[in-house]
Structures are given as structure tokens and as C-alpha cells.
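Researcher: I'd like a structural prediction for the single chain below. Treat it as a standalone chain; there are no partners to consider.
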Amino acid sequence: MADGKRFFGWVLLATTAVHVALAIGAPLSGDEAYYWDCSRHPDWAYFDQPPLVIWAMIPFRALLGETNLAVRAPAILASLILAVGLLGIVRRLGGGARDAGLAYLVLHGTPLAFLGSAYASTDIAMIAAYTLATWAAMAVADGDRRGWWGFALAIGLGFLAKFTMVLALAAIGAAVHWGQGRRHLSGPTPYLAAALALVLTSPVWIWAARHDWDNIRFQLVGRHHDSSLTLRFFGEFIAGNLVLLSPPLAIALVIAWARARRRGEPGRRVAAVAAATPILFFGVLSLGSRMAPHWGTAGVVVAVALLAVEPFRARRALVAGGIGLGLAIVAAGLTVVALPERLLELEWSYAGRPQRVSTSAAAELIGYPEIVEAVDARLRPGELVASSSYTTTHLLAYLSGGRLPTRLANVNRGRHGLASLYWYEPSELVGRDLLFVARDRRREFHEPLEEIFAEVVEEPPIEVHRDGRLIRSFRVLRCRNLRQPVPALTRLE
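Model: Treating it as a single chain, here is the predicted structure.
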């Protein structure tokens, strides 16, 4: 037993070292810069995100400065919490610390965990909470009343990480239906725990009440607009999961899940329900709208715990093959990040809806320091920097160390990344001059900008060249005297 604990500890130490190295070395994405900028404006919640991951950045930024590691430290911490939850699930399934350590290693043989554990996202924090909630629900199924309090803490805090944490209710439902949880319903514990969970989610509702329920309406009706039945999105969802997991490992997980489900033990049934719910939920939704394949990862983590304790004949071969293929995909991804210029020499694209996926996207990894320098050089005293892209807006802010006074100008009526529209009063913006930069060369910006500014003049673009070839081009429009900041630059009245 001591050897198993020691092995588990070494696994955590080794994987955390990898997470830290990736966190420091990989460039920040637009979403990560967005969360960083949100953390500079503490609030109860944010337009399209709950607050937990954003709040967690604040103490790390105070300790580590405005660095990649500070932004990604909450993800690294969440990965450690996930490991604790995985250990709890494996032990409830009859395994030990060594089995949990092997399960955690198997997870890191997939691009999902290897890269996601060092990436600042709401997903990794929610997945950690989902793992803890599953562990607690299994305890309830086995008759432990304390599991209700663990479940309440996990689902309440998990909801503050990502709203899809509500899918964990399926696990506690299974604990009540098949386990000992039903006996607890005659006492006060489940209801007091439910009240605690609701109190923990209160920051989201406070923000909603202050802002006309914009965040709730966005989650319910504003996030996805495709509605026609199609197998294309479903196929993309399945194919994406196979890439992020690798087919051999996916097969092994399905076999382990089926074996656990057939056993009929309450704890295993709870784990089987928790593993299947996210995949089934987003799989069904993908019949009418595009779903990101990683959204089902919470279920994958629980499925890996089942795999650790469910032996079958081909398990070792499938896991080894899956890890090998998964690490090859990871290596390819890291190569793209490290050498994006090489990818531009290839020609490949997938014309999916609603956007096109192409090797040309590697250009987004090139030249941002040069763009920051060029914007800074053109900026006049008193001017603000604005963009219609939340990615550009917040990356310019982050890469300049917060020096550039950036604002999102939502003139193209985007739906995501609009948190900054709730940070500035109209009185702070009226009469201001803006230097507007835009990556989109096809969109016409003059007309929407002229509606809210007294004067708009386009200037020569900012260009990034490599080996004499144009790689990136940003349009630049100098806008004078902002007359109407609502709703393009603020939604506050």
C-alpha cells in the first residue's frame, strides 16, 4: 500500500512538472488572455463565464506577476484536484493508489489531459469538480451521508467554473435510484446540502440580477444558433473525440464502461452514469448544433477510472496503442506551436460549418509582439486601442503587459467574449479617440464605425512578413470623437 501511495505521488510530481513547463513555454491563446483581462476587473461573474477560474488567477498574478504561469496556475491546481478525485473514485471501485496513478498516466497519454492540464480554461476546473462530485455520489450510493456535503461543495463550486457542471446531477440521481441515497431523503442532510450548493452559486445570480439576466439568456439562447437536424455535426463530434482520445483508447474505455455497468454494484452504476452523461448529452446536442469535442471530457475522466479497475483481455494492448497514438498527436500539436512557420508551407483545409479549418490558422501564432510594437508606435496620447475581435483586444493588452488601453468594439455584433462591455460607463468613453485594428480584411468596418464616431480615417495596415512573404495583415482605422458608445463599447446605461 505504501508503494502505491509513493507511486501515485511520483506520478503527480512528474505530471505537474510537465504542466508547469508547458504553461511557461506555450504562447497564450486569445481565450486565456480574455480570462486574464477579466481577472483585472473583479466582479461577481462575467457575461459568458462564471467567475471561479478568473478569480483564481488574481492571487497567482499577485504572486507570479503578469506571466503565462500565473494565468495557467489555476489549471495546474485543478489538475491536482482532479487527481485527488480520481483516487477517490478508484478506491470506491475497489482499486488502490497505484491503480489511480496508472489511470492518471493514461489520461496524460491523451491530448485532452496532456495539453488541457496546462491551459487556462473553465473546462479543467469543472472537470475536477465533476470528478469530486462523482466520488461523493458514489459515497452516497454506499450509504455515507457525508457524501451529500461533498457533492454539494463540488457541484456548487463546479457551477462557478462552468455551467455544464449541472450534468453531475445525473450521478446523484443514480445514487438515489440504485444505491443507499434514497434512505437519506427522509432526513434533512440532502436538503441542507442542496441549500449549500445553491448558496455557492449565488455570485452568478447576483451578476444576472444586476445586468438584466444577460448571462443566463446568453447560455440558454445566445450561444448556439444552428437548429436543423444534421449528422455532419454529430460526425464531427465523434471524430473530434477519437482524435483527442485516440481510437484504441476509446474502444478500451467503452469496454470498461460496459463491464462496470453490467456488474450492478451501486457505486459502479453511479460511475457508469457519470461517465456516460456528458458524452451522451453533447452527442445528442450535436445533432442540431456544433459541439466542441472536449466538452465531454468530464465523463472521459470517470471512464478512465473504470478502465483502471476493470481488467479484460485486450486492455493492455488497447491502452498502449491509444497512449502511443495520443502522444504522437500531442507531439504534432506542440510542433505546430513551436514552429508555426513550417505549417504555412503545407496546404490543407476542412470546409466545416460555420467556419473553415485550415493550416493558414497557424498564422495566428506568428507576429503578435511585432503587432503590439506597431500599435504602440501609432498610438497617440489619450487614444484607446480597440478591435472587433475579443482575441485581438485581450492579447494586445496581455502582450503589452497591460500597457495598451484596449477596448472591445463590438461593431460586428459578435456573441462571445463580451465581458468588457460591462466594465466601462458611457461617461468614460464619450468623446474618446480610438485606434481601431482588425484582422478581418473582408468585413466593411467604415459604416458601423462612422455611425458612432465623428470621423473615421483608414491608415496603412500593420503587416507581418516572413522571408519576404506577407503572413498577417491588420487593418488600422483612426476614429475620432466617440459619440455613441452604447452598445458597441459598453452595455451599461
